[in-house]
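Before a computer can learn anything about folding, someone has to put a protein's shape into writing. The outcome of that step, for a single protein, is printed below:
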Amino acid sequence: GLALFALAELSRFRVTKEVEHMGNAVQLIDRLLEKKIVGKAKDGRATISFGYNFDWQSRVFYVPEGTPAIVPTAFASQALMEAYDVFGDEKYLNAADQICLFILNELNRIDETDDEVCFSYTPVDRSIIFNASLLAGESLARVGAATGNEEYLKMAAKTVRFVTRRQSQSGAWVYGAQASQKWVDNFHTAYILLSLYRISSNIEELREDSFDALNLGGGYWLNNFFLDDGTPKYYDKEVYPIDIHSAAVAISTMSELQAIDQRMLPLAKKTAEWTIANMRESEGFFYYQLRKSGPVKTPYMRWGQAWMAYALARLIEATDGE
């Protein structure tokens, strides 16, 4: 949540150049770094990671509070690297580099070959979850491109090949490799598309293969996960529950991926307008879900509020402040 709010403020600063947004971003990243989990690489260097401040039970495994996990760690890395790009402060780059050391030294590697790898979700599981592994690759690619670290770039490329080679002929990706993980949902598909785009943007040799996967996957996503009015479906074959996370991740992803499909930005605007009209309370917060039985108005801070702050900021930035 702190990372996402920081990313929203960095986006607003890029558009407005207002000092308030700069100050907010710096303060949020400072608070984020106070939550870091410090580990040790094989060569003795310090690593940095992040975990959830609550116990988390997924459909497949259990993660106790404070366990390092790649999803919050990757978004922390994104916030650090965007802060480095905006402010030029080496401390942000150094912290993101320590995250890369965590990825390479503490996450498990599943099915690794000379040209493929899947990184685990946490150091205590060996799950094959496509979007999670790509988030690790995205962190490596961004820092690798900034520092010229060839090992980071090589490992990032291996995550891309692992995932693109497991794309279905329709263009879809299931959530994970286990029999209980064969669903196809909106926001995990968006995560995959965005990570593929970002990694290939930093590694030229991947662009041709990634372009094909992005075109096929992006077309499947746009054609199967949204109603005509911009409503974000949860699954490719089921509308409900309509989840704020699906809406927010879609808006932010389409804002960034407009170059690969001309439908992206208009649909991002439509989904944002629909979400504000249908999932926003007059007090200002966004609902968790709309179900067939009615709305669930719980205002989850990370899942809904932080993601919508980031999504709307990125949409404003993508439309040149419109």
User: Anything to note?
Assistant: Strands lie at 37-40, 46-49, 56-57, 62-63, 109-110, 118-119, 242-243, 289-291, 294-296.
